[in-house]
Amino acid sequence: METAFKRLYLGHPAHLVVGLTLWSIWFVAVYGGLSVACAVAPPAPAQGAWTGLNLGLGLFSLLITALLAWLTWAGWKAGRELTGRPRFNALVSAGLYLFSALGVVFTGMPIIGVPPCL
Amino acid sequence: MTSINREATPQDPQQPEGAQTLHDDLHEIWGNPRGIKALTIVNHTTLGLRFMVTGMVFFVIGGVLSMLIRTQLATPDQNFMTPDIYSQVTTMHGTVMMFLFAIPILEGLAIYLIPKMIGARDLVCPRLTSLGYFCYLFGGIILSFSMVLEMAPDAGWFMYTPLSSSEYSPGLGSDFWLLGITFVEISALSAGVEIVVSILRTRTQGMALHKMPIFAWYILAMALMIVVGFPPLILGSVLLELERAVGMPFFEVAGGGDPLLWQHLFWLFGHPEVYIIFLPAAGIVSTLIPVFAGRPLVGYGWVVFAIVVTGFISFGLWVHHMFTVGIPQLAQAFFSAASMLVAIPTAIQVFVWLATLWLGKPRFKLPMLWILGFLIIFVCGGLTGVMLALVPFNWQVHDTHFVVAHMHYVLVGGMFFPLMAGLYYWLPLFSGRMPSETIGRWGFWLTFLGFNGTFLIMHWTGLLGMPRRIYTYEAGNGWEIFNLLSSISGFVMSAGIAMVLIDIALHFKFGKPAQHNPWKADTLEWANAMPPSAYNFVSLPKIDTRHPLWDNPDLPRTMAEGKHGLAVTSHGRREMWGTDSITGKVREIIHLPGNSWWPFFAALALAVVCVSLLTRVYALAGVFVIIAGVFLLRWSWENGAHPKAAPDAEVRKGDPPLHSRTMSGPGVWAMATFSIANGSFFLSYLFGWFYLWTVSPQWRMPEVSPLSLVVLVAAGVAMTLGAGVMERLVRGLRVNQDRGLARGFYMSALLGAAQVGLVLWSLLTAGLEPTRTSHDAVLLVGLVYALFHGALAMILSAMQGLRVRHGYVGLHAPFEPAVVVILWRYNVVTFWVLVGALGVLPRVIGG
Questions:
Q1: What is the structure's pLDDT at B801?
Q2: Residue B479 placed within a domain
Q3: Which pLDDT does position A8 carry in this prediction?
Q4: CB pair distance less than 8 Å for B210 and A16
C-alpha cells in the first residue's frame, strides 16, 4: 500500500484534476451508455427500474465511487504527512476526490428508482 | 535598438541615473510605435486595452438593442418594430452581449492583468494576442454590419435548427452569425491557449502554483474551459454553414441528420460559457474583497477547490437546456442532479467572501459597492438556477420570461457587476487617475435599482406565462403593468450605465491623480507605473508569498530600480523568465518577438475569407485561405535563431539559456494546449458521428462502406512512419545528435505527403454523395479533417528541413522540432481513431 501511495505522487498538482476527470468519464459513460442502450435495445417499460441496464449502470457507479473514495483517503493521508506545496496539493486534491465520489453517488442516485428509457 | 552589444552589461541599480537609463533602454526595446505602425503592436497592455475598449463599444450597441426590446414590450399591441426586425434585434442583443462583449472584455482584462500580476513582462505569444484582437474586431464588424443591411440573424442567439436552416431562414442572417461568430471564436481560442501557457510557464521566480494570486487560478480555469468548450460550437457552426451553403444535411431529418445534434453541440459550448464568463468575474470578487477587507482571503485552498469543481461540473450540465426535447427521464435526472451539484462550489465561494468580510475591516469604497450588488443579485440568480435544475419546474417555465430573468440575474449579476467593480478598482492602474465617487455612486444605484426593477419583475411575467421572444402581446393577460415597469426600470438602468461610462470618460481628464497603490492592494500589478510602461517591470523579483506588496511594501521601488532579475537591455531582446509550471523555479529566459505586421495581415486575409464565404464567392475564399496560410507560415519563420528573433544566444553569466536553445520552451506547451482544443473539436465530431448513427430517425448506413479500408490503413502506416522519423530526430537532438537532420525532416514530409495522397485517393474514389445523406457528409468532413492535418504536418516538417539549411534549427537551436512532433503525435492518434470509427466499426456493427 505504501508503495502504491508513493507511485501515485499524491502531492503532485495533477491530482487536482484526476478526481473530476474520473467523474466526467463516469458521467459521459452512464449518459452515453443509457442513450445507446435506449436507442438500440430499450428494456420493456413494465420492468420499471429493475432492469439489467440499471443494474449495470449502478455497479459501474459503485466501482467508480469506491475508487474515488480510496483516492480521497490516500490523498488525505498523504496531505497530513507532507509539508508546503505538496501538502497543499494533496489536501485540495483529497477534497476534490471526495467531492467527485459524492458527485457520483448524488448524480447516480436516480439509477435506483427511475426506469431507464421512459 | 539597432546596434546590439553582444556582451551583456547590467545597469548599476544603485544609481538613480542608472535606473533611468535602464527605463529608457527598455522603452526603446519594448515601446509602441505610433501612426499606421500601431497596427503592428503586440504588447499585452495595449492589446488588452483594445480588447476592453472594443468590448465596451459592443456593450453599448447591445445595450441600445436591449432598450429597443423594452420599448417594444412596454405596452401591449405595439408596432414600434415589425416582427422581423424584432427577431433580429433580440438575436443580435444576445449575440453581441455574449460573444462580442462578455467574453472579449474579460479576456481583455485577463490579457492586460495576468502578466502584471504574475510578474512577467508580456504574454508568452504576443503575436497571437494581436491576431486574436484583429479576428475579434473584424468578426465583430462583419456581424454588426448585418444590422446596417437589415440582414441580421433572426433565429435567436442560440440559432436552433431547423429555424436557422436555409428552409426557414433563407437570407444571409444565419450565415452572418455562423461565419462571424466562428471568426470571433478564433480570437477566444488563441487568447485561451496563450493565457494557459503564460500562467503555467511565465510566473516570476518562486511563484509556485499555491502562491499564485487567486485571480490567476480563476483565469487559468477560464482559459482551459475556453480551450475545451469552444470547439464544439466551432464544429457545429462549420456543419450548419456547410448545410446552408452546399446542402449537406447534418441537421435535416430527411437526409439522415438530426436538428437535436445542433442543440447538443451548442450547449456543450453554451453552458460552460456561462461559467467561462462567471469565473473571471468571481476572480475579480476574490481579488477585491481581501484588499478592501484588509486581510488575506479566508480559505485560499477552498477557493481553488471551488474553481476546479466549477470548471469540470459546468461541462456536465448542457442537457438542462434541453429538458423539453424528449430525452429519457433517467438522463434528465442525471443532468438535474449535476445542475444542483454546481451550486456547491458557488456557495463555497460566497461563504469565503462573507467570511473574509466578516473577519476583516471592510472599507466601502466605490468598487465594493458593485461587489455588494453582485452578492445580492448573483445569489438570487443562483437560487432560481437551482429551481430551474428541477425538471418539472423547468418544464413549467421553459421558454418564458422567468428563464430570461434568471439568465440576466446570473449574467448581469455574476459578470457585469463584478466587471464594473474591477474596472473601478483597476482604473487608477489604467490611467493614473481616480474616478469620481459621487458620479460613480449615482451610477451604481441607478444601475442596481434599474436592474432589479427590470428583471425581478420579469420573473413574475414569466410565471404568468409570458413566452420569451414574442414581439408583442395582447392586453388582458395581466402582463401589462409588469412589462411597463420592466421597461421603465430598464431605462433607469441605462441611465445608470451611462453615468458610469461618463464617469470613466471624464476621469481621464478630470480625475484626481492616483497615489501609488491607491487601494493598498497586495498583488504585483500595483508595482507597475500608473499607467504602466510597455515592459511592465524593470526587473523581475523573486516571490515567496501570496501577498508580495503587503509583505514587502518596498518591492515596487526596488523593482523599478532594477535590483531584481533580468535588469539587462544590451542584447536588445524582449525577455522574461520561463519558470517551472509547479515550483516557479527559473528554467530559461523566454525571448519574445517584437512588433509585427503578420498578425494583422493574417487576420485581414481571414476576414476576406469570411466575407467571400458570406457572399458565396468560393474561389476568392480559396485564394485568401492560401494567402492567410502564407502569412502565418512567414510569421512562424521569424522564430528561434532567425535574425529577427534571437540570432545569438548570449546571456549573462549565471542566467539560464534562452528558451529557443532548450527543448521544453513555451511553444511546446502552446502546441500541447492547442492539441487539447483540437482534440475537443475531434471528439465533438466523433460525438456527432455516433449520435447521428444511433439516434437520427432516418440515418442510412450503406450496406458496404464506401471507404477503402486498405487505402486508409496504408495512409495510416505512412503517417505513423513519418511520425516515427520525427520522433527519432527529436530523440537525437535531446542527446546532441543531429546527423541527417534536414534529410530526416524531408523524409517525414515525404511520408506525410504519401498519407495526404492516399487519403485524397480514398476520398475521390469513395463516390460520396454528401448532399444526399448525412452519412456521406460526415465521412467527407472527417476525411477533410485528416487531409488538413496531414498537409499541415507535412508542410511544417518540410519547413524544419529548410530551417536546418538556413541554420535556424539544429543542435544550437533544437526547440522547434520538439513542437512539430506534438502535431505528428496528435495526427497519428486521431487518424487511427478515425479509421476505426469511420472505416472499421461500420463493417463490424453495420447499420
A1: 96
A2: no
A3: 78
A4: no
Interface test with B, best of A24, A100, A102, A107 (most B CBs within 10 A): A107
CB B413, CB B456: distance < 8 Å: no
Q: Report the domain count for chain B.
A: 1
Instruction: Decide: B248 and B242 in contact? Cβ < 8 Å.
Output: yes
Residue B820: half-sphere exposure toward Cβ, Cα within 13 Å = 32
Residue A5 has pLDDT above 90, yes or no: no
**pLDDT at B287 (0 to 100):** 97
What's the confidence (pLDDT) of residue B644? 86
CB contact under 8 A, B694 and A35: yes
**B6 falls within a domain:** no
A80 vs B: CB within 8 A:
no
Helices B417-431 and B480-510 cross at an angle (nearest 10°) of: 10
Residue B374 banded pLDDT, cuts 50, 70, 90: very high
Instruction: Write down the pTM of the prediction.
Output: 0.94
Which residues 575-594 of chain B have a CB within 8 Å of chain A?
Answer: 582-583
B813 occurs within a structural domain:
yes
In a 3-state reduction of DSSP, which class is residue B573? coil
Contact B582 A13 (CB under 8 A): yes
Cis omega before residue B702 (within 30°)?
no
Contacting A residues, span 28-57, partner chain B, CB-CB under 8 Å: 30-31, 34-36, 38-40
| Structure confidence by residue, pLDDT tens digits, B15-73 | 466 778 888 899 999 999 999 999 999 999 999 999 999 999 999 999 999 999 999 99
Which among B302, B315, B694 has CB closest to A39? B694
Does A103 reach chain B within 8 Å, measured CB to CB?
A: yes
Q: How far apart are CA B284 and CA B411, in angstroms?
A: 15
| Residue A4 CA, distance from chain mean position | 19
- The count of residues in chain A is 118
Q: Are A11 and A78 in contact (CB under 8 A)?
A: yes
Closest CA to B381 of B400, B351, B339, B409: B409
Domain span at B823: 700-847
B358 within 8 A of B375, measured Cβ to Cβ:
no
Whether residue B541 contacts residue B565, with contact meaning beta carbons closer than 8 Å, is answered with: yes
In sequence order, the 6+-apart residues with CB closer than 8 A to the CB of B237 are B178, B179, B181, B182, B185
**What does the mean pLDDT of chain B come to?**
94
Cα of A55 to nearest chain B Cα, Å: 13
The CATH number of the domain holding residue B794 is 1.20.120.80
Query: Which chain A positions have a beta carbon within 8 Å of B322's beta carbon?
Result: none
Residue B12 — pLDDT band, cuts 50, 70, 90? Answer: very low
How does pLDDT run across A31-43, given as a tens digit for each residue?
999 998 998 889 9
User: Does residue B505 lie in a domain region?
Assistant: no
Give residue B332's identity as a one-letter amino acid code.
Q
